[in-house]
Amino acid sequence: MMKALVVREGKTIAVEDHPVPQLGDDDVLVKVVAVAQNPTDWKFVDAVQNAGTVLGCDWSGHVVRRGKNVTAEPAVGAHVAGFVMGGAFADSGAYAEYVKTPAELVWAVPPGTLSHEQAATMGVGVCTAVQCLYHRERLGLAEPPEKTEGAEWVFVNGGSSSVGQYAIQLARLSGYKVAATSSPHNFALVSSLGADAVFDYRDPNVVATIKEATADGVHHAIDTQSTKETQELCARIMGKDGGKLILMFAPTFKAKKLRKDVQFIPTLVYTALGRPFALGPQAKYAAQPDDRAQVVGFLKKLPMIVQNGLLLPNPVKLWEGGLHSIADGLQYMREGKVSGEKIVYRL
């Protein structure tokens, strides 16, 4: 048995004794050292409510056991990181002493580069940004080591969010110019990550200002928030010839009506995990082998990218108390208090 943060009835969670996950032939078992918090965590508690499942997605730790088909990397003892879909399955969740995951969905953290706390921030955020930017059915942009000549703009709404921070860095690594929005207190952070131009999303003239700065040339965009309001904002920011806007949720009718020349493309990174899942009785998703192959391919490149200092982790807000303090951290996030940083717990 192990200690794990388990979803209970009535929108509650509790630290409980829980079975250690049974490995499949292609899996690894990881002793978790640090976990990072995502908005999806509290949403799974409040909305999806899969009682008996283990919560948490992002993790970093050491390999302690391998399935019989895992004969190469990662080795037992290796420092690895990755993400799972917390709140969906009884045998897979990061907020636990042990997590199981397919071996091909972990990445080896290069020695001397990132702490466990930093590596834990590079799960859902990195892979969502990768899916948005590079998947052929999303933006389909040049993926490292390929590089464009830098004449095209990528717009990131919510540049200080976890996904936004990684999307900015990766788009710049691919040679694109980046425009982003954030709160003014995060301008310095967003600029330091490579954004060429940063704008206050509350500015009533933000659409006109961005269009002027980009010569009305935004044809690739990611809305990391994807509320009704931000979808409409992003639709207006798209350039005169339209383009693709990647969303975290389904597009609204009004946003689509605003721009007939824009493709509104929702994405959900959990489709890359190779396992069917549900977000409720009416929201069932099949595994997508193409999504998985794309993420697996990038994870093979990630250690060298990190080794060369080309992708920085989210700023860490270390929340003391381990598993027993996560409920407080989730409430802090529910209240909208997280900005420009990632809440991380050490187990």
TrEMBL record:
Domain Enoyl reductase (ER): 10-344
GO MF annotations, alphabetized: oxidoreductase activity, acting on NAD(P)H
CDD domains given in the database record: enoyl_reductase_like
UniProt cross-references to Pfam families, sorted A to Z: ADH_N (PF08240), ADH_zinc_N (PF00107)
Matching InterPro entries: ADH-like_C (IPR013149), ADH-like_N (IPR013154), ER (IPR020843), GroES-like_sf (IPR011032), NAD(P)-bd_dom_sf (IPR036291), Trans-enoyl_RdTase-like (IPR047122)
SUPFAM superfamilies: GroES-like, NAD(P)-binding Rossmann-fold domains
Name assigned to this protein: GroES-like protein
Alphabetized Gene3D superfamilies for the sequence: Medium-chain alcohol dehydrogenases, catalytic domain (3.90.180.10), NAD(P)-binding Rossmann-like Domain (3.40.50.720)
Coiled-coil features, chain-numbered ranges: none
Protein origin, superkingdom: Eukaryota
